[in-house]
Amino acid sequence: MVKVVRNLALAGGAALFYGSVIERHAFTLRRFEVPILAPGSDPIRLLHVSDLHIIPRQHRKIAYIQALAALKPDIVINTGDTNSDPCGIPAVMGALSPLMRTAPGAFVPGNNDYYAPQPKSPLNYFKPKRAPGKRAHDMPWPELAKTMADAGWIDLTHVRTTVEAAGRTVALAGTDDPYLRRAHYELIAGPADSSAAVRIGVIHSPEPPLLQRFADDGYDLVLAGHTHGGQVRVPFGPAIVTNCGIDRHRARWLHQWDERMWFHVCAGLGSNPYSPIRFACRPEASLLRLVPRTR
Asked: Do 282 and 242 touch, CB atoms closer than 8 A?
């Protein structure tokens, strides 16, 4: 029995070391094809980043984000939790500026853009989700949002708009953060722009009722983050928790919502600084190649 306990402790220690020292720095790029354009259309290359959780000392992660500009995407979408340091705006802009010079982009906030991450027990993720309590707004989200908007990216917080990408019109609509119950879809409700080449919804947390509302309004694709892909997963299996309403088997990557709409959950490039670990869930960005529908 003692030997079994010792072996389990050694295995747990090895997994913790691997997840916190090796895998959380193993940044990768996922590639997906999304069949949502009209027949005969040329592809649109969309870079989806999320949950960057940038703090100034993370030089390796910042360099990886900067290097994504070499992909030359047609459009960049950032689905929130960008900053994790109250003094982190210069580091955030240093990471994102190469992308901002490369392509048009848009963003929405996540919960940690409003509130600084706090240490908490991992067991809290297994408890029923409660309404967030009142806390001081201790993160400079209004300042960061203005800084990114001044640099050319669109703040999609309860906004419907269009942007030109790859010579075509892309319709965009976004909400405030669903996890903090700040999303008010009624502010952007209504049929999606039928004249656009593609219609994309942008949210932080992939909550099923919100996904359904985008689908009902005729959006082709919804982009979300928040889950970190589960952050700790069963190897070759599902996430253990998602920290939102989406099921564990769809905590990351591309899925079809109904016969028309797709949604993509980016597993993100960062983590809460108080739980700096990834296991069987590498930090990642996603390059989505939007292509013609097959049927």
From this structure: no
The first and second tokens of residue 285, run together, are: 């960005």
Dihedral-angle region of residue 281 (phi above 0 means left; psi in -120 to 50 means alpha; beta otherwise): beta
Residue 172 lies in a domain: yes
**What are the tens digits of pLDDT across the range 173-226?**
999 999 999 999 999 999 999 999 999 999 999 999 999 999 999 999 999 999
Neighbours of 35 (CB within 10 A): 14
Percent of the chain exceeding pLDDT 90 equals 78
How far apart are the C-alpha atoms of 36 and 54, rounded to whole Å?
A: 32
Residues 50, 240: Cα–Cα separation, whole Å: 20
Count of alpha carbons within 13 angstroms of residue 288, beta-carbon side? 25
Domain of residue 89, residue span: 2-126+136-292
Nearest to 116 by CA among 138, 91, 92, 88: 138
The count of domains in the chain is: 1
How many Cβ atoms sit within 10 Å of the Cβ of residue 70?
A: 8
Output the DSSP codes for 201-248: EE-SS--HHHHHHHHHTT-SEEEE-SSGGGSBB-TTS-BS--SSSS-G
d(C-alpha 129, C-alpha 147), whole Å: 32
Please check whether residue 131 lies inside any domain of the structure. no
If you search the block for the tokens 């691997």, which residue do you land on? 18
Structure confidence at residue 5 (pLDDT) = 45
